[in-house]
Amino acid sequence: MMVWKNAALLAMALLVVGCSSDSDKEQEPAELTDFEEEVRLDEQWSRNIGEGQGETFNMLVPAVDGETLFAADVTGVVKAIERTSGDVLWEQDLELPVSGAIGAGAGLVVVGTLKGQVIALNAGSGEEQWRAQVTSEVLSAPQTNGDVVVVQTQDDRLIAFDAATGSQRWIYENTPAVLTLRGTSTPIVTNRLVVAGLSTGTVLALDARRGLPVWEQRVAVPQGRSELDRVVDIDGSLLLSGGVVYAVSYQGRVAGLDLESGRVLWQREASSYAGIAQGYGNVYVSQANGTLESIDERSASALWSNESLARRQLSAPEVLSSYVVVGDLEGYIHLLSQVDGRFVGREKVDSAGVRARPLVVGDWLYVYGNSGELVAYTIR
After folding, report:
1. Is 79 a residue whose pLDDT tops 50?
2. Which domains are assigned to the chain?
3. Would the pTM of this model clear 0.70, i.e. be above it?
4. Counting C-beta atoms within 10 Å of the first and last residue's C-beta, which end of the chain has fewer, N or C?
């Protein structure tokens, strides 16, 4: 039954556009508009990472630890790359269908698979350190604080493993929603807390050492008569900045929560399955209908809203310098001003699309296209 639900909601995630008309013309992605280019990107290097994202709506976002960038493809190819030169440091082929990638930190690189396996590699050599089995497929990147590796499964369980040995430390079980989107948000793991977004529209914080609940906060309340109307998954990765946890749900809200208590600091209606970014006291949301919105954290009011990318299946946004970067289904990355949301730059990266959130480290931008091309840019 879970397979049927995933397939049905995957189709919905791909087609959801916030439009009630059945017209084929209205369901097409918005055509790109011309603008005066103010910012250009310089490609520094490009590397192929196997077969890329695959056909099952994976979002295999690369990860950076120190000066090394790690990326994985859907077939299990994992590469470590020096992030400024593009030199490949090592490559490992797990020969398994990777669906949750990639977590990196404390000397480990960790991925999850469609078959519910969690595999930890040595970050320096790529040698396998351990592997463990969980209850269902892993669709988000495992995270580590050096003591534990935490995995969130498709059935909303949170499982912690000893980072050194892979032995299970604890498991926290949740009851998933009746119908869910295909995907889970990537949990936040600090030295003390594990914070996760669930398919029920709830954000949960657990004690990292023992897996005991610390607080729970509802971000979205299911509404509507049908099960489709009541889907409120938190699928976009959570964000932690300055003691604030940022979360956004599908058909629900975007909110800022106090890390220690879970108290709602601000909230606003939103619908996103991609995710959010934060910068300059503003939060940027890739809405499910293709609108990119900037929200003032102090007032929870919209500063600007750009609707020109309607139905273009936007990736989660990212902040690069004074710009917001977002990818789309035709493989473009768009740069918008953080001040007023106007387009300032655009680059074609991958004709197969850009589904994974762009990755920013300092003044470097890394974009992983659906077909497997990983490209590093700097601002010209």
Report:
1. yes
2. 40-52+294-380 (2.40.128.630), 58-173 (2.40.128.630), 179-273 (2.40.10.480)
3. yes
4. N
